[in-house]
Amino acid sequence: MTTVAPNIPAPRSPRRLRGRTNTELYSWLFMRASGMLLLILVFTHLFVNLMTGDGINALDFAFVAGKWADPLWQVWDLMMLWLAMIHGTNGLRTVINDYAERDQLRMWLKVGLYTATTITVVLGTLVIFTFDPCPPDAAADLLPSFCQAP
């Protein structure tokens, strides 16, 4: 009687460790801290935008322009953008590390993730700080009602 060896896939090759670092510990701590801060930032943002004043009926271009005229709301929205993007990127990085089996695939997925994150954060930051609701060379019929016509 002969026995056949079970068809078990070979284990993944261990990733090389470059010294002992606490990167995953710091990543774990960041996720907890940023998650708590994001809860405060997002729910305060929702409360201010939806519950105060005229509520959802007041949300329009003028409302956002008025909010971003105040440096407090620029920094608030910037913190939400940066924390949400870094928090989400870190979470997706963990998923990629857990489920991408080949080293080259894992590397390219992370390159795409970091590229998309960088582009989104840079463009979002530029929009928040360079937003001008009343550009001086725009046609008068395209300007919102609160802008002074040239």
Characteristics:
150 residues, 62% helix, 3 helical TM bundles of succinate and fumarate reductases, mainly alpha
Q: Explain this structure to me?
A:
The protein has 150 residues and is mainly alpha-helical. The protein has one domain: Fumarate reductase/succinate dehydrogenase, transmembrane subunit (3 helical TM bundles of succinate and fumarate reductases, Up-down Bundle). It contains four helices and no strands. α1 packs across α3. The longest helix has 29 residues. The mean pLDDT is 86.
Radius of gyration: 24 Å
Q: Give the number of DSSP strands.
A: 0
Overall average residue pLDDT: 86
Quick one: CATH class? Mainly Alpha
Name given to the CATH architecture: Up-down Bundle
Q: Sketch the major β-sheet.
A: none
Beta-strand content: under 5%
Coarse morphology: elongated
- Structural class, from secondary structure content? mainly alpha
Distance between the termini: 96 Å
Number of helices: 4
**Poorly predicted runs:** none
Order of helices and strands: HHHH
Organism: Jiangella asiatica
Main location: membrane
InterPro entries: SQR/QFR_C/D (IPR034804), SuccDH_FuR_B_TM-su (IPR000701)
GO molecular function, one term: metal ion binding
Chain-wise SSE layout:
Blueprint: H1 23-50, H2 61-68, H3 71-99, H4 103-130
What's this model, at a glance?
InterPro entries: SQR/QFR_C/D, SuccDH_FuR_B_TM-su. With 150 residues, the protein is mainly α. The protein has helices at 23-50, 61-68, 71-99, 103-130.
